[in-house]
Amino acid sequence: MARRFIAGLLLATFVTGCGCARKEWGNGAIGGAIVGAAALGTAGGAIANNVNPPFKAQDSDRGAGIGIGIATGAILGALIGHCLFDSETVVQTVTTAPPPPPPPAPVAKKKLVLRGVNFDFDKATLQPAGVPILQEAAKILNDNPGVSVEVQGYTDSIGTDAYNLRLSQRRANTVKNFLVKQGVSSSRLTTKGYGESNPVASNETAEGRAQNRRVELVPQP
């Protein structure tokens, strides 16, 4: 009988323990163990004392019954107290927000390169060699309708400043008119003559002066 009783208690212990596995062990388990040990210890002694005649309970039987009752009562009482009175473990999950995506890389601004053309001495007429250069410039501008250009005219150092300013302006106007005929809107083209300022080569040689007689196409921001 004692063995069946213990087996029943162990089964109850297993079932109860599974149902309360998420709780923290605390004062409820301690109090339940004390009460259970006292109650079942007393019951174990009483069971051992009430043996069927003609047998008579021995002190060793009563002691074993009390011991078994205390042990099983403590276990069962602790589990019951734990399940009824201890608090369930609260698991706090800390979630961290994912890092923000990196900002998009800035789009590199395309550099627009437009070749200029040169002019004969004291002339504002476009040279044949300059025609394909300006045709290519017009194509680039038509492909980039948001770009405006300053058409800058220059001369060499021969002549007065006032004359060279007028000559450089005529050269700039010649180039603008050609670009407009190629389909570039005149509103995107401004002209300015700079005379003999800003030379790109020495005016002491014929070759240098030829390079300075020019028109440059400068894209505006």
Task: Throw out a few tags for this protein.
single chain; 221 residues; alpha+beta; four-stranded mixed beta sheet; 6 helices; 4 strands; 50% helix; 9% strand; disordered N terminus
Q: Can you tell me about this structure?
A:
This protein has 6 helices and 4 strands, in the order αααβαβαβαβ. The chain has 221 residues and is α+β, with helices and mostly antiparallel strands. The protein has a 4-stranded mixed β-sheet. Strand 2 (148-153), helix 5 and strand 3 (189-193) form a beta-alpha-beta unit.
Number of strands: 4
Largest sheet: 4 strands, mixed
What is the number of helices?
6
Cα radius of gyration in angstroms: 53 Å
Oligomer: single chain
Q: What is the spatial order of strands in the main beta sheet?
A: 1-4-2-3
Strand content: 5-15%
Overall pLDDT: 77
Shape: rod-shaped
Helix content: 40-55%
| Derived structural class | alpha+beta
Distance between the termini: 102 Å
Low-confidence stretches: 1-7
> Order of SSEs, N→C?
HHHEHEHEHE
List the helices and strands and how they pair.
Layout: H1 2-19, H2 27-49, H3 59-85, E1 117-118, H4 130-143, E2 148-153, H5 161-181, E3 189-193, H6 206-212, E4 214-220
Helix pairs in contact: 1-3, 2-3, 4-5
Short description:
By secondary structure, this protein is α+β, with helices and mostly antiparallel strands. It has helices at residues 2-19, 27-49, 59-85, 130-143, 161-181, 206-212; strands at residues 117-118, 148-153, 189-193, 214-220.
